[in-house]
Please model this.
Amino acid sequence: MIRFRPHHFLCALGFQGKGYSDSFTANMAKIVNRLRGPDGGDVVLHVTHQADAICAPCPHKRGLGCAKSAKITALDKRHAAALGLADGDCLTWDDAQARIRAHVAPGDLQTLCAGCAWLELGLCEAALSRLHINNA
Model:
């Protein structure tokens, strides 16, 4: 089981090897590679509104919180509402992707991810579009 903040569901979907630091990027790559691996769809994700497995080496992490807590809390609230996630929920990566397909359309990220520094790169939007095309 991997602890995941609500906004990290879409971050994991769009991850392409970029991050805040080398240690953050290496950690994120390890997690995402596990999700994209042969048994990745069966990996159980535990929803949390605190620091999670992806946050572990983040330079903004402060205990179980974040130095950018206002922005991160807003992202988590929007993503949790869009995906129907509550603190403490558990679901597999396959189930998470099904929720993303069902509830997040291409183009929704401009609102859902407003304030995210990675949004302008278009990586998550491209991954979201591929998810919809590959599972249409």
The chain is about 45% helix and 10% strand. The radius of gyration is 14 Å. The chain has a mean pLDDT of 93.
